[in-house]
Design goal:
The structure is a homotetramer. Chain A is of the alpha/beta class. Chain A is built from 8 helices and 13 strands. In chain A, the strands form 3 sheets. In chain A, strands 7-6-5-8-9-10-11 form a 7-stranded mixed β-sheet, sandwiched between helices. At the A-C interface, strand 11 and strand 13 of A face strand 11 and strand 13 of C.
Chain lengths: 282, 282, 282, 282
């Protein structure tokens, strides 16, 4: 039997779970996991994520889609159906530091992150060897204040129809237009526990403030800097001995963990944006 | 509307979620949370925990129970229906240390643990003032090698029909008979990360072994010592400076957290025993 | 033998450790713990904290003080000598929530926090029973916009010469003058991971921002709101299901842990303020 | 100025710190970090680790060594003096899984682990490409029950005079003789929270026991299986959904973190074996 995932969203009212589970039972699917969330018990939005197994899912997909379309009209429902065998494509933007890129490459190869990295894009040539060793096309797209627009245009060409774009310590601010091309599928890692230390040089700011924990935040990118919906955050302890450089070093291990986790959840359809926040069916 | 919980278990086969969610929809209940687990996708046991809201739950309980009985026969299903307003009763056994008892008392009073502590039983008189201050009847039931049987008989009388019995650092081994009276509703806190350091004096053993983390484990009690299904575990870091006494002190804060969490989950019907393990719908 | 602590600070230059350890050796003290920190290897400030045992410390204290005064002039050194047997006095300010106060009371009684709570001051009468049960004088000092100055004057009288003042979820902003009375000995618990969510209602703000971890911060109070040197921080994980009320509930356990830890370190002379940051010899 | 480290051990008696810090001051060294531990305040063993900076350390090393030899006799003291610039050599033993090896390679290249990996030895050929990509000689030394002795002899030749040997998920039990060649410089990563789940297949055992946290332990290897002094441990949370395979996957990230941390501390002279336990000056 093939594994599939179904994510639906609709206004919350009694009966929706019964209807959807009946539909899956009728086609012979067995639900293996189910998670749901209601933004508000009265008048909110209902979100449901189902995992199921169904023989010949690829062939019977159209039948299922037809039934879901019907329900979508009746229940004002949006839905997304994914075959677990599908491997989404990911384009990764980096600058000069490789720790997050290395981690994503490792997790893909280890089978822990089911996706294909189709391109590495960078405003610096430094990480070409890392990409090349992993057999991933590397694209050097320099960015200067005067050429930013062209650079983004070039980057868009390279990214093509990738399912997901990841800013893996890409030290450039992308334009609102660029963000708009990848709604809810452009993920950034910010090297602080947001909303603390928005913007540049957060480890210096964290050191100056004398915090006892440093953090990292993976979030969807929106036009407002470091303000998009948060997917995952983690922290690590530091003490008074930690210099800014020590914080950077410790932080690297937090950053790679947080971004890899966020990307993994995203490609498994576990993250749903709801306003400024995310639902994560971990 | 009133809040209710339904936990069902049955052999795993397609359609059970559809049937149960239809039943709840038909009586007008809105499912507010749903978690499920299958011990094995093929031929295993399916467990489902639903939270729902339903107007006049108390009055319509019988109707719901009748329908569930019907399904129970069709699906070889066991079920438990609870009104969230119900406050289970808890009897707590202690010896001389009060940290776990204090924590349970605090959480009940803070409203974080929805239960009523109906008795504190101890083989020592030391904690009577703690119980009295909290307005809980205290029962001193001394235990000596020769009087253990009578002591347990006396304890059983005191416990009566309490919904849950908690051994909150009760430094006595209870008999297999006693365990048998409280299947899946007798919880102990062991002051180690089980299965490491079974038995007496685990902090001394942890110190001798030179571990870098100490732990605590809340588990259901079965006749075999420290071997019952684990509900919750947590650890805390220690270093080479920690004496056995330091470990005891640090451990107290882990123990109280772990046991309070386990008891809270239990009284919210979130813990289901499956063989030697537990499902925890946290 | 009696236990003592010595904390010294001076400009960093070679030899200071040799001189101080020689001094202690000469009086017959055995150093049982030693921690040091240099703000900058070249031209920074050196901080040293020693624990030692010395027979008849109380009687020989004057001798030791004389020798330290001599060194202080030679090395531009400040120092603080404490007998471990000394129990500092603490005044605690609260409003209506008792979780942090209860924790401090518990830790004092358990012997984990070696201090004496000499007064509980509150702008509300609610927690009088908590203080009374613990045998601590309770002082109701209402605060209104018009009477703030008088209220602080009254509070100062009550506090008297307490060694430490703790704001244990005291929902009032204290004046710059009040802060000035307790330099480096006025500790507040803020219910967020500072510098995120400065000011009122941080759990609401954390919820709106959709953070995945909530935190608490214990810091010395300075005239600028929530900007004083941080002593300790901790976080707890929350997910999309957590309401603001859930965050408050989870947060209570983080707050009590963080503040109790900070106060414990403070009374053991483990916290040294260095500019906007703290050295914590944990 | 050059950075150096000095670790000394001797019977604990007053004056040793004074003497050593005087020695360093006299040669013009500035102590930048100092940590100490006494196994027992009366009659125990005293351990001191100093970091210092000293101009022309390499040239003045002999002078320092002479002075230390003198003190060693007076104080029954053992000592180890290291120039921070020195990069220890490490031989790594693996079998088929690469996650820990990859992590060590990454940390060396990132500069977080100051050591040189001089050989990768394996009983399987699988990881040759990983070693080759990193520019490290790979040695395939098959092990069968009948050839174990010869295999170890061959391995010893390869290791040569490496400063440290690391068993990075090497699925073979090494002989007592092999252990004896590398006293306190043979480190293993065991994939459980020791002493729970000694021996083979700990994730299966952890799953069967139903633990809620899985762990990993880095320890010095001694002839008794999984019983050597523990250097570092860490855990990760799992729930009832985790299969044995899930635990293995989660565990990989704990294992690599724990072993990398232990190796880093070891090469920085931060780990001192004391009986069955370790002192870790982290």
């Amino acid at each position: 039997a093939d594994a599939g995932r179904l994510v639906v969203r609709c206004p919350d009212r009694p009966g929706i779970v019964a209807v959807l589970s009946r539909l899956l039972a009728d086609v012979g699917a067995n639900i293996t996991d189910s998670q749901q969330h209601s933004s508000d018990p009265t008048g909110g939005t209902f979100t449901l994520r189902l995992e199921f197994v169904l023989a010949d899912l690829a062939e019977r997909r159209r039948q299922l889609e037809g039934a879901l379309d019907l329900l979508a009209r009746q229940w004002q429902m949006t839905w997304r159906l994914t075959e677990a065998a599908h491997r989404p494509t990911v384009a990764i933007f980096v600058s000069r530091t490789d720790h997050v890129l290395q981690e994503l490459i490792y997790r893909v190869r280890a089978g822990d992150l089911r996706a294909d990295i189709t391109a590495v894009v960078s405003n610096h040539p430094d990480l070409e060897p890392v990409a090349r060793t992993a057999g991933i096309p590397f694209h050097h797209v320099p960015v200067t204040p005067g050429t930013k627009e062209q650079a983004e245009a070039r980057a868009l060409e390279i990214v093509g129809d990738a399912d997901l774009v990841v800013l893996a310590r890409y030290m450039q601010i992308v334009s609102a237009d660029f963000c708009g091309r990848f709604p809810e599928r452009l993920i950034n890692i910010h090297h602080s526990f947001l909303p603390a230390f928005v913007g540049a040089n957060p480890y210096q700011a964290a050191h100056d403030r004398g915090v006892k924990l440093i953090g990292a935040t993976a979030h969807y990118v929106t036009p407002e800097l470091d303000a998009g919906p948060i997917i995952e955050q983690e922290v690590a302890r530091v003490d008074h001995r930690a210099t800014v450089e020590d914080m950077r070093r410790v932080g690297r291990y937090v950053e790679r963990q947080v971004l890899a986790q966020a990307v993994t959840w995203h490609v498994e359809d576990r993250v749903i944006v709801e306003g400024d926040r995310t639902i994560v069916f971990a």
